[in-house]
Design goal:
Blueprint (H helix, E strand, L loop, with lengths): L1 H8 L13 H9 L4 H7 L7 H7 L5 H13 L3 E5 L7 E5 L1 H4 L2 H11 L13 H11 L2 H4 L3 E8 L2 E8 L2 E6 L7 E5 L1 H8 L5 H6 L3 E5 L1 H7 L11
Parallel strand pairs: 3-6
Antiparallel strand pairs: 1-2, 3-4, 4-5, 6-7
Helix pairs in contact: 7-8
Length: 230
């Protein structure tokens, strides 16, 4: 009994919980605080340092980010660890259970972009862009397409693998790929979701592509946003 009392004392946030047995209510207990889900989104492709999270969530303060990370750690959704030498830096990452939340982001994302108030021209983080690829791919359009595409955005690199209607996106070093895309998130998003021609973005210096041009032209047609509600 004493240990139970101590647990409650060590978790002051519990005083704000819904005290409702519904799974949805408890899910909001865990991740319903402002910024919590977006912190999880940024960790969906692997560990990040505190400074990287602040960079990719420019509207969050250091104090709030600290609170959200502590809350996710306390809930067992994220963990903090130190990378081995030569890096020797502290990073945050989702636990295996935390990674199981990706379908929630996909379902919520598909539903929310149908809102008439959704503005697709607002900024996207790198994690947002690649999570959208895993969410918005049209499997019928992608059927029969095979290829590996590397993306280099600033100091981050991702590899997307297309295999007969499916896409896998990992944050990892770029090895041998069929197509290499280099540029800002905004430029890649403009080509994929904004319908801007690749050649025009290249001419403006916003994108650089090396490799299979036919794969590039087809890739940007594989993703579509659902129709607006109403």
């Amino acid at each position: 009994m004493e240990s139970q009392k101590q647990t409650i004392i060590d978790q002051p946030a519990r005083r704000r919980w819904y005290e409702d047995a519904c799974g949805t209510a408890h899910g909001l207990d865990l991740v319903g605080e402002r910024w919590a889900l977006l912190v999880m989104r940024e960790l969906m492709f692997g560990p990040k340092r505190f400074g990287d999270l602040r960079r990719d969530l420019p509207g969050i303060s250091a104090n709030v980010l600290t609170q959200r990370l502590e809350g996710l750690e306390a809930a067992g959704i994220a963990i903090r660890r130190k990378l081995p030498p030569p890096a020797s830096v502290q990073v945050y990452e989702l636990t295996p259970w935390g990674l199981e939340s990706e379908p929630i982001f996909q379902t919520l994302g598909r539903w929310a972009v149908r809102s008439p108030g959704h503005d697709p021209t607002l900024p996207l983080s790198t994690a947002s862009l690649f999570l959208s690829f895993r969410t918005m791919i049209d499997r019928d359009r992608a059927r029969g397409l095979h290829g590996k595409i590397g993306f280099r955005i600033g100091d981050e690199s991702f590899v997307a693998t297309l295999e007969d209607g499916t896409i896998t996106v990992l944050r990892e070093p770029i090895g041998t790929v069929d197509l290499l895309v280099e540029g800002a998130v905004s430029a890649i998003g403009a080509a994929v979701y904004g319908g801007q021609p690749i050649a025009g973005l290249e001419a403006a210096g916003a994108l650089r592509m090396t490799g299979d041009r036919a794969l590039a032209e087809r890739f940007v047609t594989l993703f579509s946003l659902p129709e607006k509600a109403g």
